[in-house]
Design a protein that fits this description.
single chain; 252 residues; alpha+beta; 17% helix; 23% strand
């Protein structure tokens, strides 16, 4: 990342950097997509997001830039921008095929340095996105195969999609699927593989600071999560991304 910043400073010396995260697990495109989706709205219009989770570097996957909503995104076309495309109107998509905006020598293994970083810097310096390469149809961009929660009369069958830095387990159950999460009777979450049932609900981490057992909460992105006060729910339960969960409640 330091080298990529050096490249960008050589092109746009006045650019400001904010690192969203360097904690995405290697090759985990979905986790990168989630981190981006939870963050971009808090940045001012015109912000350029340089997004590199790129297990296909050097392959036929396209390097792209998009102008979506009020922001710009530079990334590989591997699904990393899936949620951006879903959430924002897309004004332009280009394949980064104009070598005038790359470094003179392009590696097959470090295109973050040689293509993505210089393109992001040129965008930040005011180069129109259309100058970066040929236009692409947004409908042809790579999408992620995301499993959606299955909502039934008395339950939601879902999965854990992310383990954050603190070991909190984040599910793909949005609060919009159960808006009365804190008042609906009998809400509990089952982890079938571990034969665990989590029944406590809390509004914040330190609500019961002396209780070390896992509990349910709504995380900052509006999703049902599992946490342990001052501990790691992932370690406590031996659970990671991709594990099935079932949220249950009492029928009225």
């Amino acid at each position: 990342m330091g080298v990529m910043k050096g490249v960008m400073l050589g092109i746009a010396p006045g650019v400001s950097f904010i690192d969203l995260t360097h904690e995405i697990a290697p090759q985990n495109i979905y986790a990168g997509s989630l981190a981006l989706a939870e963050s971009y709205r808090y940045f001012p219009a015109g912000t350029v997001f340089l997004c590199v989770v790129d297990p296909g570097v050097g392959s036929a996957r396209a390097p792209i830039a998009i102008h979506a909503g009020n922001w710009y995104f530079v990334a590989p076309d591997n699904g990393l921008l899936h949620t951006i495309i879903e959430q924002q109107p897309v004004h332009a998509v280009v394949r980064l095929s104009n070598p005038n905006y790359h470094l003179s020598a392009v590696s097959s293994t470090f295109q973050g340095r040689d293509i993505f970083a210089p393109v992001a810097a040129h965008l930040a310096a005011g180069v129109p996105v259309q100058e970066l390469g040929e236009a692409l149809d947004v409908a042809r961009l790579q999408q992620l195969d995301i499993v959606q929660p299955l909502v039934k009369q008395d339950r939601i069958e879902a999965e854990i999609v992310h383990v954050d830095h603190f070991g909190n387990l984040i599910t793909n159950i949005s609060l919009s699927l159960i808006p009365d999460f804190f008042t609906r009777p009998g809400v509990r979450l089952m982890l079938p593989a571990q034969q665990e049932m989590i029944t406590q609900r809390r509004r914040f981490f330190a609500e019961q600071p002396d209780d070390p057992t896992p509990f349910l909460l709504i995380d900052s992105s509006g999703a049902v999560g599992i946490a342990v006060c001052n501990g790691s729910a992932a370690d406590f339960l031996g659970v990671g991304s991709g594990e099935s969960v079932t949220l249950l409640w009492n029928e009225a």
